[in-house]
Write a structure and sequence with these properties.
The chain has 140 residues and is of the alpha+beta class. It is built from 4 helices and 5 strands; from the N terminus they run βαββααβαβ.
């Protein structure tokens, strides 16, 4: 069986050092795809313990295995629905915990002619919540 290489996917990540990752798991009611605790040595993709301690705590969910699309909008909408965004109390939680929040978007643009699609309503929502949207574009 051939595995299709997706040209786009997204993750939602909170970076902070006040609350443990379980706090965000309970808040969102979602099990993270990745979590790190500052100072601990996370497992690498091969299952070995990393030689490097996490520099900051993080909590993250992604769309890679759940959305089959080569454009970003379905990935971002999936994460918004999964996390029940926007949440009126989230900006205050971010301030209280000194947290930063972002959508991180993987964008494969080997052909050089693909333009990332971030709907204006999603940009506006993230800005209102105090988060950012970053696009990591790859070209070969």
């Amino acid at each position: 069986m051939t595995v299709k290489h997706q040209l786009a996917y997204a993750s939602f990540t909170i970076y902070q050092e006040v609350e443990p990752p379980e706090f965000w798991t309970n808040y969102f009611g979602v099990t993270p795809d990745m979590q790190r605790v500052k100072g601990q040595f996370p497992a690498t993709p091969s299952g070995q313990k990393s030689k490097f301690a996490a520099r900051i705590s993080l909590w993250s969910v992604d769309s890679k295995d759940d959305v089959d699309s080569d454009v970003l909008t379905p990935h971002l909408r999936y994460l918004i629905e999964r996390l029940a965004l926007p949440r009126s109390d989230l900006p205050e939680l971010l301030r209280r915990t000194g947290a930063q929040m972002r959508f991180f978007c993987y964008w494969d643009n080997e052909s050089g002619d693909r333009v990332p699609d971030i709907p204006e309503d999603i940009r506006t929502m993230m800005e209102a919540l105090g988060g950012t949207i970053e696009i990591d574009e790859y070209r070969d």
